[in-house]
Design brief:
Elements: E1 3-8, E2 13-20, E3 25-32, H1 34-37, H2 45-67, E4 76-82, H3 86-103, E5 107-111, H4 114-123, E6 130-135, E7 140-147, E8 150-156, H5 162-172, H6 179-187, H7 212-223, H8 231-262, E9 270-273, H9 280-292, E10 297-298, H10 309-321
Parallel strand pairs: 1-4, 4-5, 6-9, 9-10
Antiparallel strand pairs: 1-2, 2-3, 6-7, 7-8
Helix pairs in contact: 2-3, 4-10, 5-6, 5-7, 6-8, 7-8, 8-9
The structure holds 5'-O-[(R)-(carboxyoxy)(hydroxy)phosphoryl]adenosine (KG4).
5'-O-[(R)-(carboxyoxy)(hydroxy)phosphoryl]adenosine (KG4) is lined by residues 11, 136-138, 163, 166-167, 178-181, 184, 274-276, 278-279, 306-307.
Length: 352
């Protein structure tokens, strides 16, 4: 059995966890910086990096204490090495390097997109290849996960990520930060059919996404409402937005499942990961989508969907078992696509 310490600092969560190859999470400590960023209604990279410096050592200590382990019991030290806000990534990776150097344990540099891609195998039995819908604040991609380190990108957003669209919708409706959970809560009592919102990219002959037009349509619908809008107006608009996102995800994912079957790589499951995968309505919709094509839909528990150390530790376990460790001079990377062979996207401003 191997035991891996995982460190995550690529955005606004300072997190560390200890996970075993027997799929046991011995400790998983997450410190959210949300309060520090709330006044700006978004993550401020400089504030995030400083907060990681202040908190990380204490979080690792707490994590070891909760797990009842010592660094000597750990077999490898994994940290997110990108992609992400570079200041934060450097803090976590440098700490991991220092611990690896001091203890003589191997270092594992984890891709922040690989961590959620593999986390599902920590909590469920999912065989390769599986189709992954990765939906977070910075990313929106469909990937075929063929093995550890083997990813085929089938589609990606050409502008905003889904979580970004949720956050911007929440911001323009003044619902608070972070936007995703606020939009989901507000949408609960809404009528999704009242506003006629677009379904960008639906029916297109590829597996890409676009959300900036939907966000603009929400803005236009909101500006046509009496000010301030009533609670029912807000609920209806959020429900309409969420339904539009659900329809687009359904269309793109169905196409991807069929595409994989056509090329002779039928997926064993649809897996959804990333912060937006915590959304219950979208989870329900995507379960229906997968089941209609005879596939199970599997998502990690909501607490493992948003950034955390357990996913980094687990990706570390999988890489360690596959014999992948990294040199101590490996660099932090702001951009690091999972599939370096994927075709470049057609527009500027794309998310890697
Ligand atoms: O994966 P994550 O924690 O961080 C990165 O983006 O790397 O994802 C955060 C994103 C935010 O945009 C947040 O608004 C969104 O996930 N999110 C949600 C929900 N919970 C978090 N979006 C929709 N519904 C939710 N319940």
């Amino acid at each position: 059995m191997s035991i891996v310490l995982g460190i995550e600092t690529s955005c606004d969560e300072t997190a560390a966890a200890i996970v075993t190859s027997d799929r046991e999470i011995l400790a998983n400590v997450v410190h959210s910086q949300i309060d520090a960023h709330r006044p700006y209604a978004g993550v401020v990279p400089e504030i995030a990096a400083r907060a990681h410096v202040e908190k990380l050592d204490g979080i690792i200590e707490r994590c070891l204490a909760e797990a009842g382990t010592d660094l000597r019991d750990v077999d490898a030290i994994a940290a997110t090495a990108g992609p992400g806000l570079i200041g934060g990534v450097i803090v976590g990776l440098t700490t991991a390097k220092a611990l690896a150097m001091a203890t003589g344990k191997p270092l594992i540099a984890v891709n922040h997109l690989e961590a959620p891609a593999l986390t599902v195998r920590l909590t469920a039995d999912v065989a390769f290849p599986f189709l992954l819908l990765l939906v977070s604040g910075g990313h929106c991609q469909i990937l075929l996960v063929e093995g550890v380190g083997r990813y085929r990108r089938l589609g990606s957003t050409i502008d905003d990520a889904v979580g970004e669209a949720f956050d911007k919708t929440a911001k323009l409706l003044d619902l608070g930060f972070p936007g995703g959970p606020a939009v989901e809560r507000t949408a609960a009592d809404g009528d999704p059919t009242r506003f006629d919102l677009p379904r960008p990219m639906r029916g297109r002959d590829n597996m890409d996404f676009s959300f900036s037009g939907l966000k603009t349509a929400v803005r236009q619908a909101a500006s046509g409402l009496p000010q301030p809008p009533s609670e029912q107006d807000l609920a209806d608009l959020c429900a309409g937005f969420q339904a539009a996102v659900a329809d687009v995800l359904h269309d793109r994912v169905s196409r991807a499942i069929n595409h994989c079957r056509t090329i002779g790589l039928p997926p064993t499951a649809l897996v959804i990961a990333g912060g937006v995968a915590a959304n219950r309505m979208l989870r329900g919709q995507l379960t229906t989508t997968a089941n209609a094509l005879d596939l199970p839909m599997i998502a990690p528990p909501p607490a493992l969907c948003t950034d955390n150390g357990a996913m980094v530790a687990w990706a570390g376990v999988e890489r360690f078992q596959a014999g992948h460790t990294d040199p101590l001079d490996i660099a932090a990377r702001a951009r690091w696509p999972l599939d370096p062979d994927a075709e470049p996207l057609p527009f500027a401003g794309v998310k890697a």
